[in-house]
Design brief:
mainly beta, 8-stranded antiparallel beta barrel, 11 strands
Length: 137
Amino acid sequence: MTKLKVTIAGIEFDALFEEDAAPKTVAAFRAQMPYTSKVVHVRWSGEGVWIPLGETDFGVDYENHTSFPAPGQFILYPGGISETEILLAYGGVHFASKMGQLAGNHFITLTSNLDKLKEIGPKVLWEGAQDIHFEEV
């Protein structure tokens, strides 16, 4: 598995691509790396932050999809009934939009500093959008 470094709001996390479970999603995201954006707090899904991607098309369908990512899991929603997005669970998440329950492809898992995840949510909620950066190491 490829090792990654993910930095969110100045906090560094080690991570791994879920290459065996979501090979097409991993390949599509890897083609965008290094990847830098902003995360904002989710509106409907619970304890998570997300990268809204509008009409971005990663050219993938569902694989290794879930509506209930665990803390430290990134999912990519490929679009359809809601906009394309990447979501990170920092606590309990039931992935949804105003249209109802959704499922996204679990393609990255954080492997270190999981105790720091609980700092991310309140910071994003109270201070606004925060930087996020993905890079292979």
